[in-house]
Amino acid sequence: MLPRGTALLANPILNKGTAFSERERDALGLRGLLPPRVFPLKEQLQRAIANFRRKTDPLDKYIFLSSLQGRNETLFYRLIEEFPDEMIPIIYTPTVGQACLEFGAIYRRPRGLYITSKDKGHIAEILANWPQPDVRMIVVTDGERILGLGDLGAYGMGIPIGKLGLYTACAGVHPYCCLPITIDVGTDNPKLHEDPMYVGLNQKRLRGPEYDELIEEFVQSVKKAYPKVLVQWEDFGNTNAFRILHKYEKDVLSFNDDIQGTASVALAGILGGLRLNGGKLVDQKLLFLGAGEAGTGIADIFVEAAVQQGMSEADARKRCWFVDSQGLVVKERPGKLAEHKVPYAQDAKFIATLEEAVDVLKPTTLIGVSGVPRTFTKTIVEKMAQYNEQPIIFALSNPTSKAECTAEEAYTWSEGRVIFASGSPFPTVTLNGKTYVPGQGNNVYIFPGVGLGALACESKQVTNKMFLIAAQTLAGLVGPEDLAVRRVYPPFSKIREVSAKIAAAVVEECHREGLAQLPKPADIEADVRARMYVPEYQEYI
To answer: Is 540 a residue of the active site?
Structure first.
């Protein structure tokens, strides 16, 4: 039954604000609760974008959008759909990083669920407190590795909120079906322990068997409460991310965006780069700065793509080299390697620095996923340009403050020959009369479409092959107009089209592999598009 009066105005999914018609105001007990003039959605949109643009500080813009989302979700999502280039960098990278850092100070109203280490044995009860019974999409974090900012504990809630906003805005997953969750097990960040505004548990981070038991209870409770849900693991630390992904990937429909989504968007960028420099995937030599979730995830999908093109898995792995905080990842390096690094430990001489590794290995592609800013120095970029006519250099660490180099530096130091992409946006660069538009290797190109596709056919599992297909689909949507300005991704203005195409390709793969639980539609893409939420007001009377 539709709520009335102030209860209706307080429901952000149903509220239309000043757009309620005269008849609706009389029938729903709204007469006198709103200013008398009726403003249709189009006019509300004009006011909203004007107010948004009036604010100059990105964090103020974030707070404005968060407030709008809390009172009128239709208008919020319509605003993102109409102005994606302005909105996406605010609701997600890079501004969401600052929002997480200041989450306690800017906290206004609750959104999502907080499950803590003190709630063991009661997670099902907490899920029952969520008002929407048909949850289909959960993004969950424990806050240990928020972007490149590290352990932010409960402040990491900004990430699930932002990611689910993108699911709706970019892929049309209905906001009614979305649930952001933070699993608060404490934090090892001493600054947060001293922060009087910190909203989470003021304790050291829970680890070991007790942590695993909490995650197990969470998964089983979610499966029982929401049988058709997809769980996206987000910003877990390396010690848990790989383990959780592999333990539950067949138990519950789930994936890890930091590992698989980042890998997919990076591979798409590489494929786009090869369209510019004429290279072949199997001839590439990749050098990574950073050997965590993102780096090894990218290497894994590169290997899968190379194997698909006829290379053996062993040979493909030999094309991937890593430099971490200790130097080049090789078999004979002192100390024990983390399990996820072992497959990429090369049989080679140890090298201590990235610059020396570039000199010795002469890679075709340099990928930064370290979270350490300004590590792609002028000398390193110049060496990449010396060894390659058109080197591929991706500075993917987020937010902008963590990028390994800027777009302007990459283009300038390579004399405009670099094929560049970054995790957070950089402005257009003009060099020697030529315009370069840097691509943004943002996971928003990938995860909304993959998630929508998995939900559209009720897949039993999300596989690595789906992310490979998503990367290939995305690369195929890069047009001549993008390549003309050396951009290896489509503009954000096409993001819903991108998500629909990727979702359709994922559904096709699910049926091919026997993972789909719904009948195969005659027109898969048309079926996907019909499922996408469109932010328009509904008539209640």
So the answer is: no
